[in-house]
Design a protein that fits this description.
Layout: H1 3-21, E1 28-32, H2 33-37, E2 44-48, H3 66-76, E3 84-87, H4 94-104, E4 109-113, H5 120-124, E5 125-130, E6 133-138, H6 140-147, E7 150-154, H7 161-166, H8 168-171, E8 176-177, E9 183-184, E10 191-196, H9 216-219, E11 223-226, H10 232-242, H11 248-266, H12 276-288, H13 297-305, H14 312-326, H15 333-337
Parallel strand pairs: 3-10, 3-11, 4-7, 7-10
Antiparallel strand pairs: 1-2, 5-6, 8-9
Helix pairs in contact: 10-11, 11-14, 12-13
Length: 341
């Protein structure tokens, strides 16, 4: 993609967000815990009336982890919830749980994806030439800040630390004074969260290379949560709900394989864990290729989902894990090397 094309697409995306932010604010309302999380409770949580285009799309059959539900209820019940920093391994559902929460509360949400090239001006605003005059144009994030929408800093440890230092006033839910003297007041209630593979303190070493280390002044402005992969029974329900045609015994075995691969990652014998999205991809590919005779469908689907992303010798070890739980012989090394799985 050329630089000019990328810039044009960026302008189109920015323009689309600007148009969406022009939509009238939705009416505040409340929802019961049962409506939001599907558990029997008439306790109410604040949200908005449906209809705003920035509300995330809910996933039918989404499965909540019980402990996470309690944490969210506690967070939402605070008069002025602090920003969350949710850390955890790749693909464990950090961003997805926030999207599903805001979807069920019908809260318009702006998700800011981290880039090393992001500058403070990209978030807070910058001086631009408009009709021959130089004017300061506030960033779109400030519009959401004044309206009480949800703000998610996705993969925040991919930001340059100075970007988040520039956002300290936002994280404090305080009045922001722009370079041109414009005063940006916060909404009465703002929900902000950040997701990251690390705690922002250099955790993970080479596993999460290129992630940033933040100073204590930034980290101190967040309430810290830690997520991991769901318990096996939760992960089984996720697969069952998403792929109802997949055999229930195959689902149980897949989740056991995932647990063993994550243990291998913890022990240093696998370069990365298998995520929930990897499992879903494995299941989809297995359903699509179940009747193939030119390959071993179980292993071929696994390799397209995860296995081809690791060294062949590691892949052979992972195939042995699959064989243990499925009792289906793994292809011979010569077949693997020839690409016939």
């Amino acid at each position: 993609m050329s630089t000019s094309t990328a810039q044009d697409q960026s302008k189109q995306t920015t323009g689309s967000l600007a148009r969406l932010l022009e939509t009238p604010d939705p009416t505040p309302t409340t929802y019961t815990v049962q409506e939001v999380f599907g558990i029997p409770s008439q306790m109410t949580l604040p949200g908005f009336a449906p209809g705003h285009p920035l509300v995330p799309t809910p996933t039918p059959g989404y499965v909540w982890t019980p402990g996470l539900v309690k944490d969210f209820i506690e967070w939402l019940c605070e008069p002025s919830p602090e920003p969350l920093w949710i850390s955890g391994p790749t693909g464990c559902g950090k961003t997805e749980c926030l999207k599903q929460l805001f979807a069920r509360l019908h809260i318009p949400t702006v998700i800011v994806s981290a880039k090393k090239s992001t500058e403070p001006d990209d978030i807070l605003g910058r001086v631009q030439l408009v009709d021959g005059n130089t004017v300061f144009t506030p960033g779109h994030l400030l519009t959401t800040y004044t309206r009480g929408y949800a703000i998610v800093f996705d993969e925040i440890d991919g930001y340059n630390p100075e970007v988040m230092m520039a956002c300290h006033r936002l994280l404090e839910r305080a009045v922001v004074t722009l370079d041109d003297g414009t005063i940006i007041p916060p909404a009465e209630r703002i929900l902000m969260a950040a997701t990251a593979n690390t705690r922002g303190d250099g955790q993970g070493g080479d596993v999460y290379a290129a992630t940033s280390v933040f100073n204590l002044a930034t980290l101190n402005r967040f309430e810290k949560w830690e997520m991991s992969y769901p318990a096996p029974e939760i992960e089984e329900r996720i697969l069952q709900n998403a792929l109802p045609s997949l055999d229930s015994q195959a689902i149980i075995a897949m989740v056991k394989v995932a647990g063993d691969i994550r243990t291998a990652w913890d022990n240093g014998s696998c370069p990365g864990p298998i995520s929930i999205r990897d499992l879903l991809r494995w299941g989809r590919k297995l359903l699509l290729g179940a009747n193939r005779t030119d390959v071993a469908p179980l292993y071929h689907a696994f390799d397209k989902a995860f296995g081809h992303g690791v060294d062949p010798h590691v892949r052979a070890m992972l195939h042995k894990i699959i064989q243990t739980h499925f009792n289906i012989p793994a292809p011979e090394m010569s077949e693997r090397q020839g690409g016939q799985l």
